[in-house]
């Protein structure tokens, strides 16, 4: 049975759906209104092939699979990061149909408010009711690879495929489904088997290294996507950031900051869950890559694509890694 309080919650939620109009009085916070919003380095720099990623709705699977390897490689320097459905972003400025935002929950030395980037205004939703529910209700976090948001508890009327680590306020629960608030379409349903429900983020159980590795392996074989932070495609630090975030530990978004933020660990003392870094100039220069140690001399990471070779997320021996001669140390966050 659905828990009591549903009617009152839906009355509050009824004020959520608002057009993403920020031309007059811009609010301090907006919310992502597509399954995954991609933040760009500069506004209106998307290409024709990027249309599935800049509309509303988006089709991230089509976008990533339709691109050639060269087109994927050309995303380097064009994209900043990504944010899943319902994520809060702080509004910095607007330029035409694009909004400069800071993505909350992705720490970076570049901006104390969050990771900066430009997102199409059509992908953002304004309004206070959803924000209130985010602050006051328990939340459902997608723990499956992806989960479908549906208009019915049985999941027959699917509307949107959500990536792992999507978090939405919980309104009610049945034995097999969870009713969640959304920023743009009222109450919708997620399968209970695809999510974990917590009263607050601090209630997410502290992981062991084995827990982190188990989650990381769930994405093995996924293709590389520059700036990717979702289970539709990761870059190296987006992968490690998301794996830790799924276990309630917020680490910086980028590899260099991840190295600076953890406790250094000697190579001989590596434990599962530790992060391994690689740097230019044979490990003495700037950090450019990160992977996760999984034990027995192996690591898992998202290596960058070239214009001629697909490089899916892989498990490889540390000493045989493509950047083995650029090893720059390791850190621990547990």
Automatic annotation (TrEMBL):
InterPro entries: NLP_P60_dom, Papain-like_cys_pep_sf, Peptidase_C40, SH3_YKFC_2nd. Residues 1-25 form the signal peptide. Residues 206-334 form the NlpC/P60 domain. One of its GO terms (biological process) is proteolysis. Pfam families: NLPC_P60, SH3_YKFC_2nd. SUPFAM superfamilies: Cysteine proteinases. GO terms for molecular function: cysteine-type peptidase activity. Keywords: Hydrolase, Protease, Signal, Thiol protease. Belongs to the peptidase C40 family. This is Cell wall-associated NlpC family hydrolase. It comes from Actinoallomurus bryophytorum.
